[in-house]
Amino acid sequence: MRILMLTNSYVDRTRGGVELHVFNLAKELEAAGHTVTVGRTSPGASQLSVDGPELWVIDPHTTGTEGRARTRRSTGSGRFLSNFLARVQIGRRIGRTLQGVELEKRFDVVHHHDFVTSAVIARRLRRTGVRQVWTNHLGEFLILRRIPVVGRWITRWLTTPFQAATGPSQELADQAAVRCPIRYVPNGVDVTTFRPASDVERQELRNELGIPAAENVCIIPRRWAPSKGVVFAAEAITLPEWPTEIAMVFVGAGESDFPEYAQEVRGLLAQARCSVAVVDSVDATGMARYLRASDMCVIPSLLEATSLSALEAMASGLPLVASDVGGLPELVNHQTGLLVPPRSPLELAEAVAQLAALPVEVRLVMADEARRFVERSYAWSNIATRISEMYEEAL
CATH for 2-188+379-394? Predict the structure, then answer.
């Protein structure tokens, strides 16, 4: 099957969930005998192009971050409307370009990975007759769906052009909120790159990476964006309830388009009651090394599907403390970690302290269960098979 994946998120400045979803899914589909092209609606070079699928920069004049809000309260109505209108503009431009390249002769299916931009493009492409499917990754769908009275009408109207869809959490696979058939298919994780470390390897990595010496190391592998909740974790480590024997490692500080938000986080880190290391950005291999150097992981998100960062941490054998939002409750239970309410620094600090106080043998059992859970349900080969089934049904 000839597959075109369309996404605005495939750039070298970030390694977010959508980017790695597209990259790993494309590689597994090609391994299964399909031909995959990634059509980027944003310009520039990509580090993910190395050993990855063929890349097609559709419109080099399109700016991937056009209209993006850059303050902490990024979901305010004015900023969200600006972002929405910018995505509509990008969709119209890309849609016009794609209408003129006879997609129906080059591809069997177009797989969209944005929402508002994809909906606009898909409407224009309906005239070509090419089959179109969609994966619902993004928080903008949830924001629109929650608008009183008209929210579900809007999301249903936007999803009319698609023949089929998937969502990586039950919340994002809400059939009542979309017009096309949609199924739950989670994000996957590279269980070879992300693996547990021995005690010796963990200590060696801490020395190599310059992680502060501590009884336990807690990692927050989060891009510094408002929806990721990093500011609440930063506030948690300023509280008396935070265990001072735990060193914190924040990985992803450089992957932020929100300078005011980042400044707020750094201001809180200056008041931390424990040792803190801040890492701007790493690739997948680097992230795997930082995870193997850690003992536990915090995912303080405010909006989340099936968190890639959580899955990578679990594959690395780390117990989690995570917000009780989106798809995170599907990953975290009493066997793999602890859930806390979002936006609650105090409860986050108390949960980390509770996890750190568990006997070593109990945490090892949690680590083993986390790894087995990911291997059973989230290996990319399994995810690609389920996506292939969606393609067949759409044709």
Answer: 3.40.50.2000
